[in-house]
Amino acid sequence: METYDALLAAIAPTSGETRTILDPATGQPVGQAPVHTVEDLEAAIAAAATAQPGWAVLGHDARSAALLRAADAVERSAEELARLLSREQGKPLNGPNARFEVGACAAWLRVAAATVLEAETVVDDGETRAELHYRPIGVVGAIGPWNWPMMITVWQLAPALRMGNAVVIKPSEYTPLSVLALAHVLNQELPEGLLSVVSGGRDVGEALASHPGIGKIMFTGSTATGKAIIKSSADTVKRLTLELGGNDAGIVLPDADPKAIAEGLFWGAFINTGQTCAALKRLYVHDAIYDAVCEALTSVAAAMPMGNGLDENNVLGPLQNRQQFDIVSRLVEAARDSGARILLGGNPDQDQPGHFYPATIVADIDNSNPLVAEEQFGPALPIIRYSTVDEAVAMANALDVGLGASVWSADPAEARKVAARIEAGTVWINKHGAVDPRVPFGGAKQSGYGLEFGVEGLKALGVPQVING
């Protein structure tokens, strides 16, 4: 275990261009991040290609054991990692935030290590025997986001390493320190060169996506960037797993108990201050209980403390960057201008340091309003009224994205019937965004393609090979 200062010192650049990373809650410096170049990327890929064959030949058991040791290393440095994450990303230490994220890193490493992927006998009829195996791809490129920088990086690297690949990570320019620190801790238990972080700009991301030495790209982020990666990767016919933009819908059926579901709705929408791809971003509520749901949800949201993430009392933090603050502000103002009813929030304190936007709930809003139709990615939830389930399903399916969705009801069987009609990669019942390392996760429509987690996630990080005979 290292102290916080020792952890920062271990990842501090010793040469080359650097960039000061600022705390989104205070505007104060957190540390210096390297600005790596395409030449640095080339060196990282070369080192990964050298380390990968020896890692692959170890076999699943030895690789799993190394991942378990890496999980132990994360847990030894958990508090230091969480503090750095809180300062750089803005999320509070408590609640489903920084300590939760670091804990999830260890949990995903352990599940990836323990998940069994056996060769599958697809035909054995006495004349033909065919087996399906999964071989390592080689070097995998992982491009991560700024909202859950550590956890999503582990989602990418854990199955990739388990399957015998090397990994080169390109973190978001907003949150490079968290990913550099995580890799530093993991590399205490991994062979040299196998896992590296190249903390550069857009030119590095583009070079990674098009590099002939990279066999697969895993990307979590915006749909626009995902489309650019598809184009950049085309000439080398890379395998891709893309988890792209959401704008998840939730449908509350008329038999739901407003007070019983209010806290679940709140965290479904406002986890990480709304900065989550699979967060609840538009809520459809039946006429019969619309006002009661609005009242119960507003009551829960009003009681949630927001502020500096290092304050143990807070569970909501700032938006990570000013660009996202401006997007949320624009969309809430568009709702206000349209005549929608602001039940809570909507008036940020412009004199307060940091990118704090208050938890905001908007009622009586049209389904075509920009706050509904565009992904806000922040702490502003529109609540749309509906009269029939057919109407609610049609509105939920109207957009060109479909990452997650949810249905809320006192009757789980009825909720599942409605869930089956929603065009989304995952539909939760009486919860939202509850990802599980054992359960496959991926998007529909323009929310991306490919599956992560569980056995399917391991398969996605291998090359299928059939041995016939």
Characterization of the model:
The protein is of the alpha/beta class and 469 residues long. It has 2 domains: 4-244 and 447-468, Aldehyde Dehydrogenase, Chain A, domain 1 (3-Layer(aba) Sandwich); 248-436, Aldehyde Dehydrogenase, Chain A, domain 2. It is 40% helix and 20% strand. It has 16 helices and 20 strands. It has helices spanning 4-11, 38-57, 60-76, 78-89, 98-114, 149-162, 176-186, 202-210, 223-233, 258-270, 290-302, 322-337, 370-373, 389-396, 412-419, 454-459, and strands at 18-22, 29-34, 120-124, 129-136, 139-143, 166-170, 195-197, 216-220, 239-243, 248-252, 280-286, 341-344, 360-363, 380-386, 401-402, 404-408, 426-429, 444-445, 448-449, 462-468. The chain has a 7-stranded mixed β-sheet with strand order 12-13-14-11-10-16-17, with helices on both faces. Helix 4 packs across helix 5 and helix 10 (258-270) packs across helix 11 (290-302). The longest helix has 20 residues, at 38-57. It is globular. The model has no long low-confidence stretch (mean pLDDT 97).
Quickly describe the structure:
This protein has 16 helices and 20 strands. By secondary structure, the protein is an alpha/beta fold.
